[in-house]
Write a structure and sequence with these properties.
This is Diguanylate cyclase (GGDEF)-like protein. Its main location: membrane. Keywords: Cell membrane, Membrane, Transmembrane, Transmembrane helix. One of its GO terms (cellular component) is plasma membrane. There is one protein chain. This protein is an alpha/beta fold. The protein is 49% helix and 20% strand. Helix 10 links the parallel strand 8 and strand 9. Helix 1 packs across helix 2. It binds ligand C2E and calcium ion (CA) (3 copies). One calcium ion (CA) binds next to strand 6.
Length: 279
């Protein structure tokens, strides 16, 4: 950096400065975001390929920061994890997503499920299972309609602890999905070991599945393998009818992606649900 000269060095360090400042704003902002109701959930429907019905939604966090505007979860979730704020935010997310789903069920969508993303940090909480149980109870939702999505890196530390908690969550009736399948290092070793119900094929495979024959074979193999382990398969990131047709042909169970709908606010999602009813 030194030999680049003074000017370049200044540009470099002021960029660093901006980055650090943004990070500080995000960190301090997150601490107040919940109570100021700047955080909210959007819902992305997923569809059962056998019935073509919307069978559930994935809840996704959104943050509208007063100065920074819209901040992506890809940016603020890691900060929430590092600071530990994800524990409180994560519980709020479960409570809110279950409450909303219970409302939709009462409007007549009785079998609607809800999927909520979990961070590894939440599994380090000793009382995770108890707090999750309370969060669901406060919503009145039957735990069988809640799916928690985990990723492979959830068990980097203390695998035994994670395994125990997952089993306890399952004992309550909650379903467990392995998210982003195929992107980590240990995907295969997870499948036999963890008490899973659902496998979500990462969108990077789904989106190549029409043009790239190698990727196509991977998708096909993942589906077959999951089924032989009695897991349901959700394909995420489905954007084209070609991708959809291929997934149908290979007997994928459920699809999610922009082709069906982008993530919607609760209000828009309710309207979308009503428009799809055909009974
Ligand atoms: P994810 O769990 O893999 O969520 C799927 C992401 O793919 C979402 O991005 C969703 O909007 C996007 N997506 C859905 N359909 C399509 C599609 O057809 N094409 C493309 N290109 N993208 C699609 P989003 O909402 O920006 O979330 C990004 C990540 O942030 C999530 O990835 C998840 O890891 C994390 N995240 C979001 N909400 C939460 C939360 O409540 N808790 C935790 N721990 N993480 C969350
Ligand atoms: Ca997810
Ligand atoms: Ca995913
Ligand atoms: Ca992801």
């Amino acid at each position: 950096v030194k030999e680049l000269g003074g000017a370049s060095y200044c540009v470099f360090s002021s960029e660093m400065n901006e980055e650090v400042q943004r990070r500080l704003l995000i960190e301090s902002g997150l601490r107040r975001a919940l109570e100021r109701t700047e955080l909210y959930l959007v819902y992305q429907p997923y569809v059962d390929l056998q019935t073509s019905n919307i069978v559930g939604h994935e809840a996704l966090l959104r943050w509208n920061h007063p100065d920074l505007g819209f901040v992506s979860p890809v940016e603020f979730i890691p900060v929430a994890e590092e600071t530990g704020l994800i524990v409180e935010i994560g519980l709020w997310t479960i409570r809110e997503a279950c409450r909303q789903t219970k409302l939709w069920q009462e409007e007549g969508h009785q079998d609607l499920t809800i999927s909520v993303n979990m961070s590894g940090r939440q599994f380090q909480q000793q009382n995770l299972v108890e707090t999750v149980r309370n969060a669901i109870a406060s919503s009145g939702l039957d735990p069988a309609f809640l799916t928690l999505e985990i990723t492979e890196n959830i068990a980097i530390h203390n695998e035994r602890n994670v395994m125990t908690k997952l089993q306890e969550l399952k004992d309550i009736g909650i379903r467990i999905a392995l998210d982003d399948f195929g992107t980590g290092y240990s995907s295969l070793s997870y499948l036999g070991k963890y008490p899973l119900d659902i496998l979500k094929i990462d969108k990077s495979f789904v989106q190549h599945s029409y043009t790239d024959s190698g990727e196509k074979e991977i998708v096909k193999t993942i589906i077959a393998m999951a089924h032989s382990l009695k897991l349901k398969v959700i394909a995420e990131g489905v954007e084209t009818t070609e991708q959809l047709q291929y997934l149908e042909q290979e007997r994928c169970d459920v699809v999610q992606g922009y082709l069906i709908s982008r993530p919607l606010t609760a209000e828009d999602c309710g309207a979308f649900l009503r428009s799809k009813r055909h009974d």
